[in-house]
Each structure stands twice: as C-alpha cells, then as structure tokens.
Give the backbone structure.
Amino acid sequence: MFHGHGGAKDSTRYDTERFLRAVDAGLWLTLRDESAPLILASVAANQAIFQEVCRYPLLLPEGAVGNFEHADPGELHRQTWPRIAELRAEVQQRALQEARAAFAQGDTLRDKGDVIAAAAARRIAHLFVSETALPLPSWLEAACQDTLRYGGEVTIAPELPAPGACCALVRWSE
C-alpha cells in the first residue's frame, strides 16, 4: 500500500529509470569512442526516459517505437534504415561540399602517390572514391583501408569534385 505523494506510478518510473541507466552504462562502455548515430528501439513509455538518462551524444531524438522483444532483425532494419540512410546522405553531402571548396583552393590530394602516402601517414580525414573506380585497384583499396584504420571516412560517390579515381581531404598539409 502507498500513502501520500508518489505511489506505484512513481515507483514504476524509478525502477524503469534505474534499469535504463544500467542499459546506458553498458552502451556507454561500448559506444563512447564511436561516432555513429544510435536509434533507440523500445516501447513508447521508455523512449522519453532513455532520452533523459542516455549519455551517448548521437542518440537520435526519434526512436523506433514498438515491442521488439520477439521481432526479427529485418523488421527492426525496415523501421530504422530510412532514418540512417537520410543521415548518411546529409553527412556525405556536407563532406562533398567541403571537398569542392577544398578542391577550389587546391587543398585536396588526387595523385595516386600522394593519396597512398597520406593514407599511410594518417593524414586523410575523408577519402572520396568515384563509383567509376569500382572495382577498386589494389592501391586505392589499401588507401581506403588505411583511411578507415586511422579514423578517417571513406565515401563512394557518384561524382567527385575533381576528375580522377579519388579525392582526399587531409587533416593537415605538408
């Protein structure tokens, strides 16, 4: 029996919040160094509470709402992928605009030797690869792998700001 303020409703919220803080703690240990968006898949009642307790800065404000306890991964993918695809397109568009501006100022790398050296030296922030370069020649595949290994981004793009197989934005110039 409950008396006075609060009651069963407050107790349930407290228990839910405590549980979601434990979920956040586990996610934080796993995701704290990541830069990918996170979509919460949960029942509606947990969406707002998790938004309050979650420390991961890239938790999206709109989650997938429903009971996914017995849902197959395909259903979860169908509900979340459109938003992820939209976010990826926005990020790629901003990066391409940045690459166009850098190319106009002569601040991109396009030469095979320069790209290979910069990727190996951890200098590439974003490597754009032309769709027409697929399948990738071994030198470009190695540059993509090095770029990703050292925290850079790789985007396969239908068009590049400059002619060629690739265009690289560097973290610093030499």
Observations:
- The helical segments are 8-31, 44-53, 73-104, 112-120, 138-149.
- DSSP finds five helices and six strands in the chain.
- The chain has two domains: 8-70, 95-170.
